[in-house]
Amino acid sequence: MDNLCITTLVEDTTLDGDFLAEHGISFWIEYGDKRILFDTGQSDILIRNAKTLGIDLAEVDAIVISHGHYDHTGGLSYILDIAPKANVYLHPEAIETKFSQKTSSINSIGIPYLAKRAVQKHQVVWTATPAQIYPGIIVTGQISRTNNFEDVGGGFFLDENCMIPDELLDDQALFIESAEGLVVVLGCAHSGVVNTLDYISNLINRNHIHAVIGGMHLLNASEERIERTITTFQKYDVQRIGLAHCTGASAVRRFSDIFQKQCFSCSASTRIKFETSHGYTSVKTK
Question: Which of 41, 56, 168, 197 lies 20 to 30 Å from 146, alpha-carbon distance?
Fold first, then answer.
């Protein structure tokens, strides 16, 4: 089975002054001879950090977008200029207008104009349902919402008057067969982390997940929701937990307390390798 390496190109934090940080997420995934970009951050920072890491983004074979928020799609126009032949995988509703409301503030948070225009001119694979990108690499498409304790994680709407709630049906994840087990990559998990893991488990009849990496949008989650999420990680015997982006300080602390050896931060430039004989390694690299 092919080895797997996942590098964080964009994240809210960086532990190395040579790399830039911004609110958003982007992962560079190397799987055998395939190169996949999962999300793009909100600007051209992914281009600059990739160059510092010695990553040639022109080699990307496929681009997967987890959902249609600006901090995951803003870099699309830049990457498509560099890699015009890469297929883009996204849910049809990812290109719809999106807004958020916090107290009296209303903000447009959907895919930026330049990114949307770039997508409309590009080859797109619409993923309302699961799609195999390559053997061993599958995007979930729309994720079933089956429990009563997870929500989308905030005040999200489809209209500027904030009258039509956005259920974020475009939220999707990526899962990959590594030599050490199943690896799940999240953008924000607006469908709910538990819903996402249960959906993947049911989809492929798997009761063990080796690693979960990415944003979990537990910023506003209740203690009960965080505890039930932790119980689900224990149920699936998750061995590696990469906390990133919108997971939230309270959830990070609780996960780190419970999963002391399994947890790590996905700050910009973090590289995670899953190898056949040597197991798991995580290092900072330039």
Answer: 41
